Amino acid sequence: MRIKKFKSYCESISGTELMNVGGSFGPGYGQEKLPVTLTSTDTRVVFSDLDSQFYTQDEYDQVYGDYLKKGGEPLDGFSKENLERVLDHLKNAM
């Protein structure tokens, strides 16, 4: 038996054989989509000209904590200017 049209083939199977044809697994199933696990805020990095390194938010938080312990003033946000201010303060405090 030869199926002449792809549409009739898709209608003849249960729906689980062709994943994401039409966005569903078959009758009775909702839309199946993978959630976005990484966003632009998760991968944001800042480059420092002082030591030629890239810093992530976590690394910035760590050096910012050291900056506050050494008597630095509180700063607002994760930015290149704040990172260089923190690194400059830590370098001069040593």
Write the topology of this structure.
Blueprint: H1 6-12, E1 45-48, E2 53-56, H2 57-69, H3 80-93
Antiparallel strand pairs: 1-2
Helix pairs in contact: 2-3
User: Compute the gyration radius: what is it?
Assistant: 27 Å
Tally of separate domains: 2
| Strand portion | 5-15%
| Number of alpha- plus pi-helical segments | 3
Instruction: Tell me the helix content.
Output: 25-40%
SSE arrangement, N to C:
HEEHH
- Count of DSSP strands: 2
Given as residue ranges, the uncertain stretches (5+ residues, pLDDT < 50) are none
Short recap of the structure:
This protein has helices at 6-12, 57-69, 80-93; strands at 45-48, 53-56. It is mostly helical and 94 residues long.
Could you name the key traits of this structure?
2 domains, single chain, 94 residues, rod-shaped, two-stranded antiparallel sheet, mainly alpha
Can you walk me through this structure?
By secondary structure, this protein is mainly alpha-helical. The chain folds into 2 domains: 1-33, no CATH class; 45-93, no CATH class. 36% of the residues lie in helices and 9% in strands. It has 3 helices and 2 strands. It has helices at residues 6-12, 57-69, 80-93, and strands at residues 45-48, 53-56. It has a two-stranded antiparallel ribbon. Helix 2 (57-69) crosses helix 3. The chain is rod-shaped and about 80 Å long. The mean pLDDT is 77.
